[in-house]
Amino acid sequence: MSSSCQPQSPAVAKSEVVVEGECPLLAATFAYWDNILGPRVRHIWTPKGDQVMFLSDGEVTFLANHTLNGEILRSAECGAIDVKFFVLAEKGVIIVSLIFDGELKGDKNTCALSIILPQTELAFYLPLHAICVLRLKHVIRRGRIWMQKGYNIISVLSLEIVSIMELLASMKTHSVPEEIDITDSVLNDDDIGDSCREDFLHKAISSHLQTCGSSIVVGSNPEKVNKIPLTLGLEHSLFTVVFNLLPPQDSTGSFVLPFRQVLYAPYPTTHIDVDINTVKQMPPCHEHSYNQRRYMRSELSALWKTDSEEEIAPDSVLHTDQAFTPDLNIFQDVLHQDTLVKSFIDEVFMLRPGMSLRSSYLAQFLLLLHRKALTLLKYIEDETQKGKTPFRSLRNLKTDLDLKEEGDLNIIMAMAEKLRAGLHSFVFGKPLYTSMQERDVLATF
What we know:
Largest sheet: 7 strands, mixed
Strand content: 15-25%
Helix content: 40-55%
Distance between the termini: 53 Å
Oligomer: single chain
Radius of gyration: 24 Å
Number of helices: 15
Order of helices and strands: EEEEHEEEHHHHEHHEEHHEHHHHHH
Shape: globular
């Protein structure tokens, strides 16, 4: 995946990462504050191949130093990770830098893990900023343990840096286009049965909306697989759509999913299999966040117990903590029925294909969902005095907003979650309910 090359200076080591496709990342750096020499760069990662913009090692070092200047008097809680976003117009770059404290050679230092992109990629990067920061934060937590043990942090950081470079390159090459023609989607088919069953399409769209617009589409037929993302992507102006197309298969022919990446994603995910027309989904946002934190703690605990600096594959450490056994069956059936998507599908196919009416009707449907989400947020704000008191009137909310079907409530809650992060946890409160327990609770209202 990556190959080390001779550093350009004795002080800075450098790795070139082989990435398929065009990688918009110019470089990644790990730097630290030396009490005698000031900011110093410990390692540089750069993608190998043709790039639209090129930075010399000296320029990369200058930019990395820029992120640490002024951090000598940094005052932060133990374990805190500060995220800083720089737009340097004079250099034509943007820098995302995570500042944290760590131990190097027995001394406590202020460190910075940064990624550098051309300013022209700002619009491309911003929708991916949250997930990149989440992944970098967790690798820093792992790196801190490695530093505390006196191990080489670069080996740990390299795993995630390479993965992020591959992610950005993949999104640059294969992401859903900003403008999608409805004629390329299933919603333009004259006969829905020709490409996929209506109940399958209904479940796929409904579950996709319930999981905050995050989906994995798998299948052996590229044409069928690609048509589903284009269909779900029609509403991507309101959601972030994530797809993993044609993943590898094991000896039994089953698709092998990137378990760790799915679990550490910001939102729960829908799993859509176009070969057998099945749709499954992960638990809702508050459960997903809870499970995610448990897995993270399990991984960090396993790393702390290691007695060797030998590299541990990230997926394997999830199984080494006896206190918490991961549930690999993280996808469950879509159990909640809805009326919103059902009505939309029934009505959109009453319109003749090839006409702009279907596109207009889709736009009106998305506007309806957006307005319902805003109304839900306003309703909860009023009922809780803007979060000062617990929310206790879920039954009234469902009645007043005409969200009596659980699927309808889940769809609008998911859209509202994208507008106001943490809504699920606030509404359902603590202690955390599992999906089964949550359904029992809701049934009592």
